[in-house]
Amino acid sequence: MNTWQKCKCPQCGNVIYSRARQRYTPQAGAPTICAMCATILVFSEEMGARLPTAEEQLEIDGNVLLSRTLETTRRAILMLQNATLN
User: Fold this and answer.
1) CB-based contact 31:71 (threshold 8 Å)
2) Predicted confidence (pLDDT) at residue 2 exceeds the cutoff of 60
3) d(Cα 77, Cα 44) in Å, to the nearest integer?
4) 31 forms bridges with which residues in the sheet?
5) By C-alpha distance, which of 36, 58, 62 is closest to 49?
6) Element (H, E) at 41
7) Alpha helix segments (H runs only) across 1-86
8) Per-residue pLDDT tens over the stretch 19-30
9) What is the pLDDT of residue 1?
10) Any idea where the domains of the chain sit in the sequence?
């Protein structure tokens, strides 16, 4: 069973869909990125999106692989937005 959860980015208001699958459901506090504004977010207890707390941000920053992956993804989103505008 696949369930789509719909929420909005707290930074830009873009609609974000999270998908709960049988094999993988994001855990509260798991990071994600808004595909519109490239803001790093985390899943809430209700599977909505919210800005990370200071503690969560420190945890993200302390995980080298995760922080590099998020930053690379964030830069790619911003580059695509810039290419679309030009």
Assistant:
1) no
2) no
3) 23
4) 42
5) 36
6) strand 40-43
7) 54-62, 64-85
8) 655 566 778 888
9) 46
10) 3-85
